[in-house]
Amino acid sequence: MNLHQFRFLQEAVRRNFNLSETARALFTSQPGVSKAIIELEDELGVEIFSRHGKRIRKLTAPGEEVLRSVEVILREVNNLKRIGQNYAAQDSGQLTIAATHTQARYRLPQVIAEFRRRFPRVQVHLIQGNPDQVAHAVLEERADLGLATESLADHPELITLPCYEWQHLVVTPLNHPLNDVAELSLAELARHPLVTYDPAFTGRRRIDQAFAQQGLQPQIVMEAIDSDVLKTYVELELGVGLIAEMAISPERDTLLRSRPVGHLFGQNLTRVAFKRGVYQRGFVYVLTELLSQRLSRKLVEQVLRGQSDENFSI
User: Fold this and answer.
1) CA-to-CA distance for 63 and 56, rounded, in angstroms?
2) Which of 135-144, 173-182, 264-273, 301-310 has the lowest mean pLDDT?
3) Which one in 45, 154, 202, 259 has a CA-CA gap of 20 to 30 Å to 129?
């Protein structure tokens, strides 16, 4: 057995059993991947994959157990590399962050700027995607940590820590009639066309739940993942915006009015996620402290080592 076989097996599962895509991802040939997997099966004496002709279809029962062991081995191999990097080159290397667009555009810039000031020799990579893509980037160890509001806590293989709370704002053009309404209500908002986030992003679930609980059907005329796109369409008077508070700046958004509506849609919680069992380099803890003062290195280390409860509140 060797690490190449383990990596081929792991990547084949990630690529939905497509060995051609597996070979491309690992910069090798498809016959080479097939041969390595067959040799691993012969050595173990079990079939890892069930096949139809020459195509693999799914993991067998023993194959699922083999995969779990392989993932542990590869994770620990990567941990050894990180330990070496951490002590041999403490202030250099690469940090990869997976984040949704709103987090990447509005929360991370100042954090990364300060991080780069402290660690000028660390190269920062940013992966953007929807919350599920963020989670999988961390699970597949393509990212050191993930940052998103929705669904990170739905993955038991991740350790997710509360980072900060935020609320939605109602955003309108300067001359919109809602600006004269003293107390906003869900019923009032439901009478207006709305522009807000795609259902997978930025607290949209809370918006839908709030209207549904009062039996209201909102007039959502446009959905997007980009807050700047939403603000543009509000300025063009396409609809009233329901937009994350971190995306609105009074100094920058001078053609818009905004009002907090946390009392209607509740507070949203952005979480930072790590893969269980993965060794983190020292500068990763510095980044978490920059994201939230509550996420001290001591606390995060204790949680990652299983010495503290990850379900604390902020």
Assistant:
1) 12
2) 301-310
3) 259
